[in-house]
From TrEMBL:
InterPro entries assigned to the protein according to its UniProt record, in alphabetical order: Leu-rich_rpt, Leu-rich_rpt_typical-subtyp, LRR_dom_sf, RLP_Defense_Trigger
Molecular-function annotations in GO: kinase activity
Organism from which the protein derives: Noccaea caerulescens
Cleaved signal peptide residues: none
Pfam families membership: LRR_1 (PF00560), LRR_8 (PF13855)
Keywords: Kinase, Leucine-rich repeat, Membrane, Receptor, Repeat, Transferase, Transmembrane, Transmembrane helix
Membrane-spanning segments: 631-653
Family, similarity comment: Belongs to the RLP family.
Entry protein name: LRR receptor-like serine/threonine-protein kinase GSO1
Length: 682
């Protein structure tokens, strides 16, 4: 629907109870007093999907209806909430999110509606939180996330809103500590304070009083101290996100009281010591993230023996040693061990797991061969083995990875030829199944019944794992890919090995690949002509090899190419400087002595460039006048030595000149001695 919104609304029948205009094509302005004829309206919903609606200033009017539910999106409300809401006292649900609402939190709206249970003001421009003066026993759901609210959280918030079940204050500018009164919220089930500037330690009352918490998210703040003391009483906790803080010490045993914990994210803190063995008794734990800490010790294989972990991320720590060969990986979907000090061979059993999707072992010291079981990983999408000491040939069984999207074998010691069967890999065939979901770690299930009453059960949560993130070297830099972007990113990196032979023509069959890096090897031959089939290619690096021949002109048709490097090879002939290749400068071609044409300054036809020849001749003539400093120094040294020898020989001959020389020397010494004696007497 589009057109004059106010006219459409004012022309509707006056007996409506339910009016929903969500997701239409309205734009322009809207007068809320166009609802003046409505007498029985209980639910009103309005939003636009093509732009924003400007709320017009209007004269005071008293509505004949009492709303129970109000939902407005994509409005420009500014500092004024619609004035007719002052006369509403029966509101049950209010959603004013995504409306560019400014100023203070509308506490009057809460005070005037004692039956209000749900208020959503997220994604606005609010700057100040003012709590109601009186206790509100009805409010259960409060969301003011993604605003610009600054200052500290009022100390009495747990007293003013004692019945809160869902509380989302994330992505604001709050500072200070968590009020101790929040320990009074014994019905609170979901709390999100992430992405603020909160600091200090979590109060004891919080650990003991909020025993109904199902999901707790305090990510990306500045909290410190130790966590989960023995008196912690979060017995219903299922999802815990404490990543991106300054927590220290060991992981407290109070965590054992949260026996239903399914997801634990302690990444990017300052935890030290070893992963405690008692975590193996947390039988519901499926997702474990402890990356970016100071943890050490051997690979915690005991957790895999006693838990059904689907994600284990212990990357960016100081773990060391080898991985036992008898570890049971059967439940794993993701294994992240990058940036540690592991060594030894990769266990054969790792790649026999049916549901394995991601393996990241980069930046360790694994050695030996890629296990022969690699072909059994039918679900593997991301295999990242870069920067280890793996060697031997790249096994052809790796070509059996039917779902692979990103394959990184760079910076190892692989030798031999590139398997031609790599052209059979499935880059670009994945389908989205939700495993890379991005968003909050919890969200309520919403249901509306036919009798116009909204029902929200905050105890029914849909938990999302932390988003899958993969770092990949493309376009000469490391980029992090996640979510839908990751699902559409396909790359092959075999750089910095000892691979030899020619580039197999089958590489041209990887039509959906976006990044291809074969640099810093010992490859010979020419660039296969059918690489021009890779129409989605964004990054191509063939530098530092021994490739020769001409650069195929068809590469100019790769319109998606954002990075191109064929430097330090033996290419010859004229550069096909046309099409998309005109976007790359001479740095893409340096180190190829026999290349000519633009963007280099080397002419492909010297006879047609007299000016260039004259310039070259002038440079040569100028070079003739340049002093060779090395020969200059040798000449000066020879002259000095010859002069000294000639003078010595001259003085050794008994002539009148030599006698005169020695006489003058004796006279000088005599005068010097007389001067010394007179100075001594004085």
């Amino acid at each position: 629907l589009n057109g004059n919104l106010s006219a459409i609304v004012s022309g509707l029948p006056p007996e409506l109870e339910y009016l929903s205009l969500l997701g239409n094509n309205f734009n322009g302005s809207f007068l809320f007093n166009s609802l003046v004829n409505q007498t029985r309206l209980k639910i009103f919903k309005l939003s636009s999907k093509v732009g924003t609606i400007q709320a017009q200033a209007e004269s005071l009017w008293v509505p004949l209806f009492q709303l129970k539910m109000l939902e407005l999106h994509n409005f420009i409300l500014g500092s004024r909430i619609p004035g007719f809401l002052v006369h509403q006292h029966d509101l049950f649900y209010v959603d004013l999110s995504y409306n560019k609402l400014t100023g203070k939190f509308p506490r009057w709206l809460v005070q005037n509606n004692t039956r209000l249970q749900y208020i959503l003001l997220n994604n606005n421009l609010l700057t100040e939180l003012e709590l109601p003066r009186r206790v509100h026993h009805g409010l259960q759901y409060l969301d003011i996330s993604s605003n610009m609210i600054y200052g500290s959280i009022q100390e009495d918030i747990g007293i003013v809103f004692p019945k809160l079940v869902f509380m989302n204050f994330s992505s604001n500018q709050f500072h200070g500590t968590i009020p101790s009164s929040m320990g009074e919220m014994n019905g609170l089930e979901a709390l999100d304070m992430s992405s603020n500037g909160l600091s200090g330690q979590l109060p004891k009352t919080f650990w003991s009083g909020c025993y109904s918490l199902v999901s707790l998210k305090l990510s990306n703040n500045q909290f410190q101290g130790k966590i989960f003391p023995e008196h912690a009483n979060l017995i219903n906790l299922m999802a815990l996100h404490l990543d991106g803080n300054n927590f220290t010490g060991c992981i407290g045993e109070g965590l054992l009281n949260s026996k239903y914990l399914t997801m634990l994210d302690l990444s990017d803190n300052k935890f030290s010591g070893m992963v405690p063995l008692w975590m193996g008794r947390m039988s519901y734990l499926e997702h474990l993230y402890v990356r970016g800490n100071q943890l050490r010790g051997p690979f915690p294989h005991q957790l895999l023996q006693s838990l059904q972990l689907s994600v284990m991320d212990i990357s960016h720590n100081s773990f060391s040693g080898s991985i036992p060969r008898n570890v049971d990986f059967s439940s794993l979907q993701q294994l992240r061990l990058q940036n540690n000090h592991f060594w030894g061979s990769i266990p054969d059993t790792l790649f026999t797991v049916e549901g394995l999707q991601l393996v990241d072992l980069r930046n360790n010291n694994f050695s030996g061969k890629i296990p022969n079981t690699i072909g059994e990983s039918s679900s593997l999408r991301y295999l990242l083995l870069g920067n280890n000491s793996l060697q031997s040939h790249i096994p052809e069984k790796i070509c059996q990875l039917s779902e692979i999207g990103i394959l990184d074998l760079s910076h190892n010691m692989f030798n031999g030829v590139i398997p031609s069967c790599l052209g059979n890999l499935s880059f670009g065939t994945q389908t989205y199944d939700g495993e890379s979901s991005v968003g909050n770690s919890f969200s309520p299930n919403w249901n509306y019944t036919s009798d116009l009453h909204s029902i929200i059960d905050p105890r029914n949560y849909v938990f999302f794992p932390a988003p899958t993130v993969v770092d990949l070297l493309t376009k000469s830099r490391y980029d992090a890919y996640q979510g839908y972007i990751l699902l559409n990113m396909y790359g092959l990196d075999l750089s910095s090995n000892r691979l030899s032979g020619e580039i197999p023509v089958e590489i041209g069959d990887l039509e959906n690949i976006k990044s291809l890096n074969l640099s810093s090897n010992r490859l010979t031959g020419t660039i296969p002509y059918n690489i021009s089939n890779l129409k989605d290619l964004e990054s191509l690096d063939l530098s530092n090899n021994k490739l020769h021949g001409n650069i195929p002109p068809l590469l100019a048709d790769l319109d998606s190419l954002g990075s191109f490097n064929v430097s330090c090879n033996n290419f010859s002939g004229e550069i096909p400087f046309k099409g998309h290749l005109v976007t790359f400068d001479d740095r893409s071609y340096i180190g190829n002595a026999h290349l000519c044409g633009r963007p280099t300054n080397i002419s492909c036809n010297p006879t047609r460039a007299p000016e260039a020849n004259a310039s070259t001749q002038a440079e040569e003539e100028e070079d003739d006048h340049v002093i060779d400093m090395e020969w200059f120094y040798w000449t000066c040294g020879a002259v000095y030595i010859s002069t000294c020898l000639a003078l010595f020989a001259f003085l050794c001959i008994d002539t009148r000149w030599s006698q005169e020389w020695f006489y003058r020397v004796d006279l000088f010494i005599h005068h010097l001695q007389r001067f010394k004696r007179s100075a001594f007497r004085n």
